Amino acid sequence: MTEEITRGSNAHEDQDRLISQRRYRKMVIVVVASVSAVAVVPLLIMSGITYRQYEEAFQAELTRPMLRFAEAGKASIESYLSERLSALAVVARENSVEGLRDSGRLEALLANLNQTFGGVVDLALIDEEGNAVAFAGPLEDRSVSYAGEPWFREVTGRGVYVSDVFLGYRNLPHMIVAILHDSSEDQQYVMRATIDTDAFHWLVRARSARRPERDPVCRRCHSLGVLPFSDAFIINEERVLQSSSRLYGEVLDPTPLPSLPPSRQAELLEVEDEQGEPLIVSYAQIERSPFTLVVLSPRVALHAGWLPVRRDLLLFPAISALLIMAVVIWGSIYVVNRMREADAKRAALYHKIEYTNKMAAIGRLGAGVAHEINNPLSIITQKAGLVRDLIELSSEAPTSDKLMPLINSVLKSAERCGRITHRLLGFAKHMEVQWENIDLNVLLREVLEFLEKEASYREIKVEFSYSEEPPPIVSDRGQLQQVFLNIVNNAFAAVEDGGLIEIGIDRVGEEAVAVTIADDGVGIPEDQLGHIFDPFFTTKKGSGTGLGLSITYGIVQKLGGHINVDSKVGEGTRLTVTLPITRSHA
Amino acid sequence: MDPIRVLIVDDEEELVSALEQRLNLRGLEANGVTTGAEALAYLAETPCDVVLLDVKMPGIGGLELIKRIKEERPDLQVILLTGWSSAEDAEKGKQLGAYDYLMKPVKIDDLVKVLLSATARGGGQG
User: Coil, helix or strand for B119?
Assistant: First the structure.
């Protein structure tokens, strides 16, 4: 049984160590979590904000050239178209229908236009019925009637017309611009010019082909380490290419672009190409035409310059956070380890004080014990001496009737001495914590044996009372002896000679036992009641260490119990020690 | 010459009887009681030369008893028997008028010597 309890006790000590380790580990986690929360979280938030702002600024910086390019391209193309429409208007205004019917005149005007502006393939004068009444250019076909053509109807209705690009007879991209001839006669005529759209290619591409250092837009892009764009082209309302594109092919090839929302100024849009890669699109609608200038660039290309900046932006907080975390973890472990060492030292010191207190208690007992032992020793001395006297001094040899009672008395007194020393030894041992089954009744009576003589001399009455047979408890014998000796000693100190000390053992529920030690002594003033368990608090001026009850309190807590005190000056003090029946952690 | 009359007062009856016999064997007239009250009653009725008194006793203790004896019989010599732990009490006893004190366990020859010395000095009472 004892062995089982010892084994159980070792298992409990292992569990204690484990709980203690867990407690310190939890402490490290709590310290690390709280310190990093106040140190790292603000850093991460600030870094996040900075990152976002940088990203937005960089995005704007990268897309601005695209927008500016689209605006500039739009202006160039509008200017190109406007020049040609104006030239046509001038021709119509300056020349009468009759004048223009003269083929030589029209040829001369065509030559003049090409010389001044270039890119005009042919000129034609068309009457109301859609028949060309005059023509200047390389390919003349007078049999064609334009009466049913949509463009012819539009120009006669609106006065001006700009066509989509189409491939002419020479398989070259062309477009038509036409205006209504402002004639005073009833008959309406249309002036039509076929324009070579090869110029679109130059208008769109030439800007990107310039040396970057000469173009402020391109220079900016160059300094950012990216191309201003990957592709630039013109599409019509059906999103069919009106100029060649690097991505989508040649003139009149369809593009996969989505319908672009109408806008008078350059806009930005993000779309995906056929492979699902995101594209940044900048577009601008050309006024008075079906054209839209489109500039696009894969987002990856635009972001190429952003990546190193992003790396720096992410690296700094990441390294800072790592460094902070490393310092916090190291610091927390260091501090908690120091705390653990301090706790261990404090525990060792407490143990030492506890030991000292016990030794002091034993020392106090020593006086009583010495006196108690002196009495049987005196009896032994005198009885043995009497035996010798009887042999030496009596005239006749002593008979066994005379000797035997003396010898028995010697033996009885020696036995009494043995009991006293045994009791003292029994109290002094068990300095190591040892859990075992304890009968509180027996233990309390053992403790009281030490004070039996004092009780007898001072005529102090000690009464025991139980509500029922107290159950055995699992606890530490040595520690409990110290607890009750401290309390009973205090009770003895508190009562007058002839006083009364009542000791009761009562069961509290299923799991605890309460030992009550009540005296009818001087009592403790109310203002001191709250301090009696404080270290170094004493009412016994000069004779007390002030550690007894403090240590008692600590021991009882360690054993999983608690102490209550109730006192009234002049009536006495009642201390109740409640202890668990089975071993528990306080 | 009349033998020296000694009253032994100690709560240990066994000790009292042993001392009685040993002192009697040495020619003294020793009687013993085990309480202070008995001692006072004895002294009220019985002549005595010297009282051998234990300091620690239930009821009327040794020191109290010296006071009472000295009140009634200032000339009666009192010798204290005490343990080491009661050395202070023994000193107090001397201040109260005790002739001497002896530490337990006492040697009989030492005791007889002190008894003889006390009676020689005090003269006793017939």
Answer: helix
